[in-house]
Amino acid sequence: MEPELTHPLCQCVLPIVQPQGRPDPRYPDTHTYTPHTDTQTRARRGKGFKEFAVSCVEKSTGSNVGEKVSSRRAPRPSLRAAHPAMPGDAHNTPLRSGPFRKDASPPAPEPSSSRADPGSQCHVTSAPDHEPEPQPLGEEGQIARESGSLVTAPSVLCAMVALWALALALATGLATAGPPNIVLIFADDLGYGDLGSYGHPSSTTPNLDQLAAGGLRFTDFYVPVSLCTPSRAALLTGRLPVRMGLYPGVLEPSSQGGLPLEEVTLAEVLAARGYLTGIAGKWHLGVGPEGAFLPPHQGFHRFLGIPYSHDQGPCQNLTCFPPSTPCDGSCDQGLVPIPLLANLSVEAQPPWLPGLEARYVAFARDLMADAQRQGRPFFLYYASHHTHYPQFGGQSFSGRSGRGPFGDSLMELDAAVGALMTAVGDLGLLGETLVIFTADNGPETMRMSHGGCSGLLRCGKGTTFEGGVREPALAFWPGHIAPGVTHELASSLDILPTLAALTGAPLPNVTLDGVDLSPLLLGTGKSPRQSLFFYSAYPDEVHGVFAVRSGKYKAHFFTQGSIHSDTTPDPACHASNPLTAHEPPLLFDLSEDPGENYNLLGGMAEVAPEAMQALKQLQLLKAQFDASVTFSPSQMARGEDPALQICCQPGCTPRPSCCHCPEPQA
């Protein structure tokens, strides 16, 4: 009998699909998976794809991501200037003119419907096709639109999970002939202990729990810096943020700096491989003059989202939960309202927050469908605002989780994950799509119950303790990644080199801090990562890395509290705890003490020889690493210019309050 997964909300029974075949070398007694034949591959890829005409063309010099293409900054043919109206979207308003106007010409054009063959100078071109008719989103069990939100009543939520679980069962044993589609989901301020699959007793996350049950769940996955901007830069480049100048702190709406254009992003790596690339959600890697640092200039063909955190603007008059629950707090004052951008156009300022996640899901579905119609793989970077403060959500989630606003927003994030998986399944692409889920940093515990949970880990956002830098992470790819749990070391820095290996894309010709985890994912080997280095949110070259982990041991050479981790019972987490040097370092055995409660060098007991040897190794690693890393000039030090704040009505007065083009509230 198959094992079953039940969820208390819907009381439905879901199969945990376990592929049959040879033993998984990581878990020989529990899981198996099946290698795939070319016949299976051809049969799978043959479904739903049109005949292709092959034509040889001159190979573009821009396909080499080993170096930035200098013409990238020159004007290029226009992208779709704005995201098309969503079916049933009653509050999709006309675009405004101005610096981010409808006819803006971003420098990274969406490629034609062709897939480059990396081994030749030929492109595979699909036959002409017609745009599909818009599909309604309102049937039960599908993604529905109700008052601008995802609809997930208990029965619908259960049906959504069951639908893609069934699709998973059908997809298992079927492989992809070409590079996989990629869905990279990046949550915001989500703690290690916030998901049901990571032990939270009351979180409503059945879709994420199903991903965990059907995929690989990481117990030791990290980010190098526990703050929004640097963490996102690390994810998209595979490089430490200090190498790019993305320090100290985060970028502001009026910052003159941003992710340098010479940096090679994951989107650029995959676009050169023929992917249709898109980002839905939070960017937070800079706006700059004329939007110079926005996603359309960084390898993304399509963008629908907010260019920074949704609390970086006044929110006291915004609705976070319908019909009229205001956002908690006032957020940042003296700034323009947060803008929703479609590529380089202002879609709304501010957007209707309760309907935002549903719009992102619709955008994602369009991207997937368009890529399939063009006969090319897609890369979706789904950077949700959930569960960052102030939390928001649609009508179906308001007050439904039993965990307050934080739980409600997490519930909507989970529903969005289910909607994305349903969309992939509807296209028949579940066996051809790699899904990765993780988050940018730990919980903002200063918000108390509105700030998330780090489980048994110490502190949270803004610190180098485990609660700040260790994140939940899931990898799901039916027929390729065997279900299980791994305790191997991994980092968000590893995403780019791993995806490059899995897609056959060349690596950028730069120093990468990530490693290729594909052997771990595919069950053919272990993680090559042996150590991890953690920087403060406000680093400098004098102190270097604050903490180092090697194997099961972690040493803190410096510690400093953070306002983001205030209100916890542990004073070491608080902003009042100053920068403190530790000689000898604080040393923890994370296999026995993941909560970092017992300093191996701080007691009266004799220190074990193994621990002393580990300490020497960690000290050597820090010295060597600090000597090898060169800090680039700080992008934050370039200063701020209020004129760079995005305004839907350029030239209006008085700024910033006149920059107000709100989205109608259905």
From TrEMBL:
Keywords: Calcium, Disulfide bond, Endoplasmic reticulum, Glycoprotein, Hydrolase, Lipid metabolism, Lysosome, Metal-binding, Signal. Residues 30-40, 76-85 have a biased composition (Low complexity). GO terms for molecular function: arylsulfatase activity; cerebroside-sulfatase activity; metal ion binding. It comes from the Eukaryota. It catalyses: an N-acyl-1-beta-D-(3-O-sulfo)-galactosyl-sphing-4-enine + H2O = a beta-D-galactosyl-(1<->1')-N-acylsphing-4-enine + sulfate + H(+). PROSITE patterns: SULFATASE_1, SULFATASE_2. Residues 180-505 form the Sulfatase N-terminal domain. Hydrolyzes cerebroside sulfate. Homodimer at neutral pH and homooctamer at acidic pH. Exists both as a single chain of 58 kDa (component A) or as a chain of 50 kDa (component B) linked by disulfide bond(s) to a 7 kDa chain (component C). Interacts with SUMF1. This is Arylsulfatase A.
